[in-house]
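Cross-posting from the chemistry board since nobody answered there.

I work mostly on the small-molecule side, so proteins are not my area. We synthesized glutathione and want a rough idea of how it might sit in this target. Sequence and SMILES are below. Is it possible to get a predicted 3D structure of the two together?
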Amino acid sequence: MLELYQFELSHYCEKIRFILDYKGLEYRKVEVVPGLGQLDLYRLSGQRLVPVLKDGNTVISDSTAIAHYLEEKYPLPLLIPTDAKSKALCLMMEEWADESIGLNGRKAMLGALGKNADFRSAALPSSTPGFLKDLIAAVPGDAIDVLGLGVGLGAESVKNARKAMQQNLEALCLLLSESPYLVANHPTLADFAVAGLTMYIKFPSGDYVDLPSGLKGKGVPGLADNPDYQVFWDWRDRLYQDFRKITRTPAASTSDGASGSGPTPINIE
Ligand SMILES: N[C@@H](CCC(=O)N[C@@H](CS)C(=O)NCC(=O)O)C(=O)O
């Protein structure tokens, strides 16, 4: 069976889970333990970032490379359109989602987490102190200091990320006001990249991702709850309903071999 080495709360992993579900592929999630588990991941894949897909003896890292591998090995249903213009738009939009939405979305979320008491309390209920560790597990090393110290990112950097995300969401709403999918009359890699990588701007409300309940349907104030972007959030809800499988009994195991139901807590004291 396919194995996805992942962080449950990673938006790049969510993009790949969407694609695996769309293609109807069975897979086992292997939750990577931040730090130590990433050393094992390095041994397996030659680098330390998730997602990594293992298919028999083949190991692929990077979400874009994984998407292309899956398209070649398991072509149906098609993820990448075949006509020249749609294919070009699809590939461009995936790259834009990875680079602009993925990075600015994470920054905007961390900024909101650092600065907004409502979002912080939803994300970090006082009754669940361990969750801070889970959330930290989902973000890269450079953000851990920021969260661990309980301060926000630089104000200017967060402001710019929010501005970029406003423009991105406006563009997506315009595209989706005319068509049910982003580049073709069927879902493509562009749709799943955008849907997965907007996870930090607004976490899905259903049981698709093993999230603390306080975080479901919550997101960055002003982006997740802004009526100007409702067309986009409605579209993403529909994509979840139509293509993403619900994980009722999480089958995740950790990269150190233990079984578990979600992201593995890490010890940051
Ligand atoms: N370009 C990569 C980005 C992957 C990435 O940034 N993964 C993050 C999780 S969202 C990660 O593994 N971070 C761990 C670290 O920075 O140590 C892809 O598309 O797969």
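Reply from a structural biologist on the board:
Welcome over. Reading the output above for you: The chain has a mean pLDDT of 84. The chain has two domains: 2-78+249-254, 84-243. Happy to explain the token format if needed.
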